[in-house]
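quick one before i forget lol
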Amino acid sequence: MQRTELTNYLDTYLDIANIKDYGPQGLQIEGRAEVRRIVGLVDAHQPCVEAALACHADLMLVHHGIFWGPPKLLRDSYGALVRSFMQADLNLYAAHLALDAHPTVGNNAELARRLGLDVIDWWANVNGKKIAALAVAPGGLRLDELVQRFEQTVGPIKLVQAQGPALIQRVGILSGSGAREIEEAAALGCDLFITGETSHAHYYEALNARLNVIYGGHYTTETVGVQALGQHLQAKFNLEFEFIDLPTGL
């Protein structure tokens, strides 16, 4: 498949042009013109590039690309990273907020699907886009049941704050660094908030709000969108797709 055809499809499917992010998203580095094999990862740093090349990738599909904030000089470790892509003629496609927010293959929609929850609305406005999923558990589920489902279908959990209702019916889901939205999740009437990571201060916000929280890890909660998107491309275009798991422990 031609790279241009694939990236045009991705840009449209993910609505890249209309979602303001912290750096340019979409095709961040242009490599070879033909794409047969896509390798998905959460990140795009040097070990990730080396792993993708070892799997004979034509295109790296990632959640965290290489552009954030002000421009950086192409020298030192950052320059070496960019040279690795260019010398290997490897394409890099990144989708950050667009992949959080996508209603079908996004991180938060996919977390809900894996946990058997139904998404009913979206919340947590980031740069003008609601990226968090509001979901319900049909018939209600116990917190320990949801913890077990998470560990079976997503990955290991970092921390569980079990201080809210024992029966979970309404769930807020925001992958990655979402603890700043604890108060909004409580205001929405959530029995449970699922996110990636927390801090000492946010721990007490959840405690004070009597809100159950599952902290699944920043990395772990953002593996699912890349996997779902890659599988979508594999099915639609008959491309090869492989997800490489390189956890950071965070």
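fyi DSSP finds ten helices and eleven strands in the chain.
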